Amino acid sequence: MRYPIAIEAGDDRNAFGVVVPDLPGCFSAGDTLDDALTNASEAITLWIETVLDDGGTVPPPGRIETHRTNTDFNGWIWALAEIDPAVLSEKPHWLSLAKHQPAE
Fold it and tell me: 10-residue block means of pLDDT along the chain (104 residues)?
């Protein structure tokens, strides 16, 4: 699964900023473009796990073409962040961890 991300270009003094338009409040950054892409995927995964653990629903990825028309992101770089679909499991993350804990 791939989520569109908007990347605000960085420079020698500023990190690359990343926003995930389909996931409210999901953002990240990185000192390099590669770091920004990696960190965006991690932020999306954590966002999804948190929402599912809280019993919420995760919006599907939108179309990058639609997001590109949003003037808030004029001049930003667009990319797709790859996410493992297994994170969309309905089972809370902490339950899967409990299975791997040693019995007392």
Answer: 94 92 96 94 94 91 94 94 79 47 46
